[in-house]
Write a structure and sequence with these properties.
Layout: E1 2-4, H1 7-20, H2 25-42, E2 49-54, H3 58-72, E3 76-81, H4 89-97, E4 101-103, E5 116-120, H5 132-143, E6 147-151, E7 173-177, H6 187-193, E8 195-199, E9 212-214, H7 217-221, E10 239-242, H8 249-262, E11 267-270, H9 274-280, E12 285-287, E13 299-302, H10 310-320, E14 326-328, H11 331-338, E15 350-352, H12 356-360, H13 370-381, E16 384-387, E17 393-395, E18 401-403, H14 416-428, H15 434-453, H16 460-475
Parallel strand pairs: 2-3, 2-5, 3-4, 5-6, 6-7, 7-8, 9-18, 10-11, 10-13, 11-12, 13-14, 14-15, 15-16
Antiparallel strand pairs: 1-9, 16-17, 17-18
Helix pairs in contact: 2-3, 3-4, 8-9, 8-14, 8-16, 14-15, 14-16, 15-16
The chain binds ligand NAX, adenosine-5'-diphosphate and potassium ion.
C-alpha cells in the first residue's frame, strides 16, 4: 500500500527530522533526488537548457539546488525569481557558483527554448491559485517546448485535496518528497501532477500512519487467491445479484458475468432479468422470484438496471434488512438517497457506489475535495462510499480512505459501473473488510479497463471477457506502475 500523507503529517515528521539532522541536509536530499529524476527524464544534462521558476520559500530552494546540480553537469540553467528579495540565499549562491543565470520575472526566462521547466514556485506552503505573474509563467511553460516538472507539488494545487482554486502549473511529472500527498492523485490536482515520482528523504519512520492509501497489484492479489484443495463452490462465499429488469436486462448480464469472472465459485441471481442472465451465463443459479427465494448467499449486489418503482424499493429493503454485506448501486442509490434510513444503522457492511450525480442525491455534489466529501457521507450513513471518477475514492465510516491508481478514460462507457458492482460483490462475499474490498474492486476494474483498452475502444462486455486475464496479471508479476 502507498500511504498518502497530508501536509500536516509531512510537516510534523519534517519537524522531528529537521531537529535530528544538520541544517540544510533535508533540502540537499530533496534537491539531489529531484536532479536525479530530471537527468533520467532528459537523458543527459550537457547541452540542455533548463528554466527554474523560483518562489520565495523552500520549494524555490529545492529548485535552485537541483538547478545547481544540472548546471554543474553542463546544463544551461536560468532561474526566474518571482520574489527576488526572498529567494533562498544558499540555493541562489549554489546556482551562481555552478554557472547558472538569474533573471527577474520580466527578464529573458528562456521558456521558449527550454528542454526542462522546474516549477519551484510554491510547494506544501502554497495557498490558493497562482498569482498573476506566476500564472503567466506557468501558462508559457505549458505551451513551450520544455518538459514540465513540478517540485513536490504543482504550484496552485492544494496538496491535501487536489483542489485547484485558480491557475496552476501543468506538470508532466511531479517529484515529491518524503510521501505522496493526496492532492497529487485525486481530483483536479491529479491532472496537473502527471506522473508522480517519490524521493525518499528519510521521513518514513517519523510519519504518522496514513489515513488514506493507494493499493498496488500485490495488495489486490491477496483478495484474488485461487481456490485451494479443500475448497468447494460454496466455501469462499456465494454472491447474490439483484440487477436488470425487462427494460434493462443487460445490467443483470454484465453484473453477474463480472461476479462470475472475478471469482467463479457460485453466483445467484434474483429478479425479472432471469431469462437474459440464464442465456448469457448458464453457470448462474437464477430465480425469477425475489431475493428470499434465491438461496443462501454471503453478499448481495442490488440496483443496476433494477428500476426505482415500488417493487424495486421492496427488494432493496428486503436485502438491506439481512445481516449480510450489500453493494447498493445505480437505481438502488436513487432509492437509498430518498430514504437513507434504509442504510443507516445496518449491522452488516453496506457499500454505496455513486458517481457524482448519484452522490449529489444524498445532499450535495462532491465538490473539489473528493476524499473529504466521501468521508463525510460515509460517516453520516455508517456505510462505505465508493465515489466513482477518473480516480475513484473509497471512504469508510471511520475515515479510512483509498484512492484508486488504475484505470483509463475508456471506462467511461455504458455498463462499466455494472461490471464494477459485480466485481465488488464477488470480493465482498469472501468476507474481506468492506472498504478494502471496494478499493480492490476499483483497482481490478481499472486494470481490466487497461488490459481491454490496449486492443482498441472498449464496451463493458469487454471488461468481463478480459477479467480472467486481468486477474491472472494482477496475481502474477503485475503491470508496471507506469501503466497505473
Ligand atoms: N521543511 C523542510 O525541511 C523541507 C522542505 N522542502 C521543500 O519546502 C517546501 C515547503 O516550503 P515552505 O514552507 O517554505 O513553503 P513553500 O515554498 O511551499 O511556499 C511558501 C511561500 O509561497 C508563498 N505563497 C503561498 N501561496 C502562494 C501562491 N498561491 N502564489 C504565490 N506564492 C504563494 C508564501 O507567501 C511563501 O513565501 C516543500 O514543498 C518542499 O519543496 C524540501 O526541501 C524538503 C525539506
Ligand atoms: N474518465 C474516466 N477515467 C477513468 N475511469 C472512468 C472515467 N469515467 C468513468 N470511469 C469509471 O467507469 C465506471 C462508470 O460507472 P457508471 O458511471 O456507474 O457507469 P454505468 O452506469 O454506465 O454502468 C466507474 O467505475 C468510473 O470510475
Ligand atoms: K511546486
Amino acid at each position: 500500500m502507498i500511504g498518502l500523507s497530508t501536509v500536516a503529517e509531512v510537516r510534523a515528521a519534517e519537524d522531528v527530522l529537521l531537529a535530528a539532522t544538520r541544517e540544510g541536509a533535508l533540502m540537499q536530499r530533496a534537491a539531489t533526488g529531484l536532479a536525479t529524476v530530471c537527468l533520467r527524464l532528459l537523458g543527459r544534462a550537457h547541452g540542455t537548457r533548463a528554466t527554474l521558476l523560483v518562489g520565495g520559500g523552500n520549494n524555490g530552494g529545492d529548485a535552485l539546488f537541483a538547478g545547481a546540480h544540472l548546471a554543474a553537469r553542463g546544463a544551461r540553467v536560468t532561474a526566474v525569481l518571482l520574489d527576488p528579495a526572498r529567494a533562498h540565499p544558499a540555493g541562489l549562491a549554489a546556482l551562481r557558483r555552478a554557472g547558472g543565470r538569474v533573471a527577474g520575472p520580466d527578464g529573458d526566462d528562456g521558456l521558449d527554448r527550454a528542454d526542462l521547466v522546474l516549477d519551484g514556485i510554491v510547494g506544501i506552503g502554497g495557498r490558493g491559485g497562482l498569482r498573476p505573474e506566476a500564472a503567466r509563467l506557468a501558462q508559457r511553460a505549458a505551451t513551450g517546448p520544455g518538459l514540465t516538472v513540478a517540485v513536490d507539488v504543482p504550484s496552485g494545487v492544494d496538496a491535501d485535496t487536489g483542489a485547484v482554486g485558480g491557475a496552476a502549473f501543468p506538470a508532466l511529472h511531479t517529484v515529491t518528497f518524503g510521501a505522496v500527498k493526496p492532492g497529487l492523485v485525486v481530483g483536479e490536482g491529479r491532472g496537473y501532477a502527471g506522473t508522480v515520482h517519490l524521493v525518499d528523504i528519510g521521513l518514513g519512520p517519523h510519519l504518522a500512519p496514513a489515513r488514506a492509501h493507494q493499493l498496488t497489484d500485490a495488495d489486490v492479489a491477496v483478495h484474488l487467491e485461487p481456490p485451494g484443495p479443500g475448497d468447494d463452490k460454496y466455501s469462499r462465499g456465494v454472491v447474490g445479484v439483484v440487477a436488470g429488469s425487462a427494460a434493462y436486462p443487460g445490467a443483470g448480464v454484465l453484473c453477474t458475468g463480472a461476479a462470475l469472472r472475478t471469482r467463479p465459485g457460485l453466483v445467484r441471481h434474483a429478479g425479472p432479468a432471469g431469462d437474459a442472465v440464464r442465456t448469457a451465463w448458464p453457470e448462474v443459479i437464477v430465480t425469477d422470484g425475489g431475493p428470499g427465494e434465491a438461496g443462501r448467499v454471503q453478499a448481495w449486489v442490488v440496483g443496476p438496471g433494477a428500476g426505482t418503482d415500488d417493487a424495486a424499493r421492496r427488494v432493496l429493503a428486503e436485502v438491506l434488512a439481512t445481516d449480510l454485506p450489500v453493494v447498493v448501486d445505480a437505481d438502488a442509490l436513487t432509492l437509498a438517497a430518498r430514504e437513507p434510513a434504509l442504510v443507516r444503522g445496518r449491522g452488516a457492511p453496506t457499500v454505496l457506489t455513486p458517481h457524482d450525480r448519484e452522490f449529489a442525491r444524498f445532499g450535495e455534489p462532491p465538490g473539489a475535495d473528493r476524499i473529504g466529501s466521501a468521508r463525510r457521507l460515509a460517516a453520516d450513513l455508517g456505510a462505505v462510499v465508493l465515489l466513482k471518477g477518473d480516480a475513484t475514492v473509497v471512504a469508510g465510516p471511520d475515515g479510512t480512505a483509498f484512492v484508486n491508481a488504475t484505470g483509463t478514460s475508456d471506462l467511461a462507457t455504458a455498463g462499466s459501473g455494472d461490471v464494477l458492482s459485480g466485481i465488488l460483490g464477488s470480493l465482498l462475499a469472501t468476507g474481506a473488510p468492506a472498504a478494502e474490498a471496494a478499493a480492490a474492486a476499483a483497482h481490478l476494474h481499472g486494470r481490466a479497463g487497461q488490459v481491454a483498452a490496449a486492443a482498441g475502444p472498449i464496451v463493458a462486455g469487454d471488461l468481463v471477457r478480459r477479467l480472467p486475464e486481468t486477474v491472472g496479471r494482477v496475481r502474477g508479476t503485475g503491470l508496471p506502475d507506469s501503466e497505473a
